[in-house]
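Protein in question reproduced for absentees:

***
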Amino acid sequence: MIRGSMVALVTPMQADGSLDEEALRQLVAWHVHEGTDAIVAVGTTGESATLDVVEHLRVIALVMEAAAGQIKVIAGTGANSTREAIELTESAAKLNVDACLLVTPYYNKPTQEGLVRHYCAIAERVPVAQILYNVPGRTGVDMTNESVLRLAGVPHIVGIKDATGNIRRGTELIHALAGRMAVYSGDDATAGELMLQGAQGNISVTANVAPHAMAELCKAAMLGDIKGVERWDAPLRALHRDLFVESNPIPVKWALHAMGRIDTGIRLPLTWLSESAQPVVAKALQQAGLL
């Protein structure tokens, strides 16, 4: 089981929007050095929506190459087409990733029965560890705890990223699953609390800029160290909030550029962080001791 701090890694780009392969390699090396437990490549934060299939798989391959077995790699392979999700997951599995992260189908708004069948179809076709991903604020569909429980016994489905930010609901799911599937937080602001309730880690945006602190926070939470969680989380709270002052990954890409780690590339329809929001993110970085 993958546990701990898992960074939802940005995809570095040159100013013209082309992939910056060297910056990507350097980010992976930095996360290995700072103690991050796993890299999530080409998820929402990695701008999966604007990468074509060749680029998508190239980023995963580059992360695998840079990781070189030193850190777990989870590939984002979700899609709103079940056929496309199967194809991406098959391709990622051939690259020997440790797991795949599969967001609920977005925009077409399937029923709960459709969600269950979607995930069963992928799990049946591809023998790789699969993590479900529920983020209703972005997809327009919310997978209920009851649907997750139906999927808990399906071979290859090993976990769920819960990005609802609803601690009560997440805690109820953890207790109902009783260890049959790992629950991971997908909400930095509430991650420490959910891990104290039994979640096995956090798939994090904040870890892009504060990898060491997020790794230590996760360690403390999984040990039940409430004071340790508070100590590591307190300086990061403004980041948890302000890295979403505009749509993710706009603020976190600006933050990483301000820290000298990536260029200014981002793809339309996303735009560079507005001038009015830049001081907000800069202040959060300063409060965390990162700028």
The longest strand covers residues 157-162. The chain has one domain: 4-225. The mean pLDDT is 98. Residues 53-67 form the longest helix (15 residues).
